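User: Hi! I'm a student and our assignment asks us to look at how structure tokens line up with a sequence. Could you show me two examples?

Assistant: Happy to help. In each example below, the sequence comes first and the structure tokens follow. Example one:
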Amino acid sequence: MYIHELPDTLDRAFFLECATLILMREGDWQKNLLAVDKGKRGDIIEPYAYCLSELDKVVLEEYAEDAAKNTAFSYEKFSSFIKGTLRNKNGAYSPELVFQPNDKMYNRRTLSYLFRTASDLILKEYSNNQNVKQEVIEILTKGGIDLLNIDQYAIRNVTLELPEIKNLAFSKVLNELIESKKEIINSFRIRNKRLFVLELANIGISTGGYKESQQKLVYQIAEGIGLDKETFDEMQEASAHLHKLARELEQAKQELFELINE
């Protein structure tokens, strides 16, 4: 892990936020959203945080630990930052992470906030789309939901899980996130950009491989921080090669252990 080599605490926090967003893109928690108690549905979809698997959480914690190296900002604070940016209600950045010193409200523009505002705009845009309405009704019916007693959160959750709308939500939030971190990005040297994308690729391999939707987000980040396509591809290949060597080393160690214990 090389995140500790990013020069500033804010750089590292920005990386953790990007990594969290990408890992949130896929997962199977949302398949059970209709079975959740009606009173709790409002806390599920915003911001897709239940899509994080246990492995995703472990990997993010490992990166939080790496981010805390060579800085006064502790692992506990970075770990808390990850949880805080996902918190639905009253979530806020740590007061020690001042991304926009001249914007008092910016400290509450967490991932959760960005997803809530993006979701509201997207749902409003699609509110009169008959194809979307029909698809939602079919999903609710198959899920055994009584349409006569349906609650707003069930409709909202199912709508936001539709592939087209989910793609739009994540892309929109990522654009907002990148735009809000322009001051940080403008300070990046080319080495920092390479480290940033290399470690995003490493996270994908560590969690079993990114799906196409996640790969698109990684490339969107690379574009957003000013990394060209050729260098992006090189970082992806370097990450894959590194993990291939790591697997071969582990296999060799296992074979040696078995040979010793024959």
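Example two works the same way, sequence first and then tokens:
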Amino acid sequence: MAIADHERSTVNSGSLPGAGGKPRARQAILPILCAVFALSAALANRAVPRLSTAALIPTPIAAFPHTLGGWTSGADRDGRTPLLPSATIIERTYQNTQGQQFALLLLTAHDYADFHDPNICLPAQGFTLGAIRKVALGSTGDSAFLMTATLRAQKIDVLYWWPGQARLETGYGYDQWGKLLAARDRLTGEQGKSLFVRMMATHDSRSEQMLTQTASAWEPELVSLRHKEK
């Protein structure tokens, strides 16, 4: 995975981005975790047989702004992998002038089998997941899922949702639910815009509020990607 020169210098300096200061100290583990999460999701998803269906409509995720609402990111990190052949994945680290940081992952795919799901990839890497809470996102009517993931001394907050019309909520079981959605699309000819969003930050007293407030402010911009051409 390519990492921009100005981001590469932070790799050995600390832990995951969080709501507090010390951005260099908190950023080091991010590229490693992102790579681990992508690989584990790929391996888990690969085990699920694919069902032929009308292709989902990809979303132009590269058009999402690098600067938005007081937050700025460096260059994109390309998270694509041959194990998720229909998926395009972009990873970024955003920070603001107060030193707060979080990791953003955007994924779009032609196939439900390549949709990313933290409930699969995080436990596959040994993380223990906390209770999942559903949180409202601003005035759009959309909602997201918020949980903590813990591995030894590392505790992170994970906020994720599907702003596109194509959704994959795995409380019903990834295998069964994904196949049902694919079968529905095949029967109805429905083609939803596919978009998965994940935000992660080191857990602290302000991290949950930071993630949910930022996601709420950004949701209209994410939803607007549905109307842009790939």
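Here is something you could point out in your write-up. Confidence is low (pLDDT under 50) at residues 1-15, 44-54, 170-177.
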